[in-house]
Amino acid sequence: MSPRVVFPNKLLPYLLLAPQVAITLVFFYWPASQALYQSVLREDPFGLNSAFVGLANFRRVLSQPSYIDSVQTTAIFSVATALLAMVVALLLAVMVDKIIKGRGFYRTLMIWPYAVAPAIAGMLWLFMFNPTMGTFAYMLRSAGYSWDPLLNGPQAMTLVIAAAAWKQISYNFLFFVAGLQAIPKTLIEAAAIDGAGETKRFWTIIFPLLAPTTFFLLVINTTYAFFDTFGIIHAVTGGGPGKATETLVYKVYNDGFVNLNFGDSAAQSVILMVIVIALTAFQFRYVERKVHYG
Amino acid sequence: MKTQGFAAGLAATFTILSTSAAFAVTEISWWHAMTGANNEVVETLSREFNESQSDYKVTPVFKGTYPETLNAGIAAFRASQAPHIIQVFDVGTGVMMAAEGAVKPVAEVLSMGGAEFDKSQYLPGIVAYYSKPDGTMLSFPYNSSSPILYYNKDAFEKAGLDAGNPPKTWPEVFEAAKKIKQSGAAQCGLTSTWLTWIGLENFTAWNNLQYGTHENGLASTDVELTFNTEPFVRHFQNLADLAKDDTFRYGGRTSEAKQLFLSGECAIMTESSGGLGDVIKSGLNYGLGQLPYYDDLEGAPQNTIPGGASLWVFAGKSDDEYKAVAAFFEFLSQTNIQQRLHEVSGYLPVTLAAYEATKASGFYDENPGREIPIRQMMGKEPTANSKGVRLVNLPQVRDIQNEEFEKMLAGDQTAQQALDNAVARGNAAIQQAIGN
ipTM of this model? Predict the structure, then answer.
């Protein structure tokens, strides 16, 4: 047991905790409880009439075929975004690690996109690939490829995944670079002397030692893909074509703020809350066990 | 909450009592969604109104896009912080109408201001759209527009078409589009903004067809959608067929397709008359025509229905505040103001007097295309099919329609399937929205 540091004053620790607790109460517990309350109500948009309906909203939401489709869309989108963002970031981090000259310069450039707000990132990609005004869309079409994410669902999905992953690469890159720096050079040099090639060194030494970083990023990227990508989807596809890019979060927004169906929307956000709590718990409980913390 | 409201009311009473009557200026707020040049119009009008008298002061507040403004208004009402006037887009009309108790009919507000409200002075098509089934006008039409045909004269000449004579019917439009595509005069022949508003809601009125039961929702909220009949299927199958070889190109759910026309990629476009400003700015050699119709349908062309937005007044304000709102609306209805609004912004004038004054000024002789949207709307007495479309959840139903159209244009389903699905899903959504 390590010695515990104890405050002599009984009140002080609570005082120090208070601001954080207050923020959590106001920005998490209060809205979350409102969502719970709304999810068992049925109300007109203006709140003139409301009635308690129990779990009817949940039953209706879960029986909608479009909700199941949205779950599927979210799964595809999240897995692809997290994977793409992490693989590319890892590749870039390993590359930058090898550069001797101008490493800081490259690193700074790589980190920049993280400062871009999701909605702006979405607009950037939209400007490049929108079939009506995008430069790249024009080039793709001139090259004979029928690029039309306005009507082609898989193409639209590819576009939002690329935009969402692009935005997250910087963040992942930063952590991978830090992770790589923490790996003792002696291990890698020893392996090199023993005749291990570059690929072998990566898979047997670097990658396993990066596992804690990778795990951490997996959690962060999954929650990112679930929640923070709303702005990108809103700007690039608006959930379309059809419902091809309508993720769960987007559906919450759409049902609540476009369709003004607050009960269904609240029920969906409660379900989403449960999913994310479960997902995070699962990741920490099972995946973390297998992670090697050097 | 109750005691708080009482306390606030008491405080407000004291404030009012303590300021002497001579200085009592009643302030009212106006939430709107106008950007760019249209925002300037809003600011100018408010300033002119404030300078024209000393009893009332209107403060315009920009609240984002149309849906954002509506949501802000709803949220504010729920928090008892509603503005006095809110600009709500055409699609939100049904939402607002269903909220009896949250809104105060404009007809009532105007009569509170002591002014005799004379409906006959307003453009009939517009008044009908913003009135209750019993004829009470609920909101004040601010910016109204109507879909028309735009075409690229250069592309028409290249394709050997008559640039002085735009196609009038849909079959003629399709023929022209094919010729343009085949001759290489443009990459695509035809495009359209707002497939829901132009392709369904105005298509319904213009061709005198039924969109849904109960006068397309104007007579009752319990509507059953019926837009999957033969003429609709025929029209959308035509578009789907043309989309296969890019003769018709889809631009997006709202007004994105305008870019396709402005860039010269598509030679013909159906778009709101409100889009004229951008077309003029682009320097394109354009021509204007009536919205196309099917000449084999009985009664077509009938009349188009207004799009755009109107001003709604929230309930629960004081008499003085309503008097201020009434004074502001009176100010907006003045002939010279309406005439200027119409000529500067491209919106339709709201009063007949403003229309006549614009006509007399020779504006239409100089700008012949500008009268088309008004003539389309006023040409005939509206029928049960052509007064407009009103659903308590029209935004949601439009979303459903867009989704089905996108699947159809991608070649995943036929027009019949798309419209059948849209009707079935739309009916389910309406039943849920009205609480059945």
Answer: 0.79
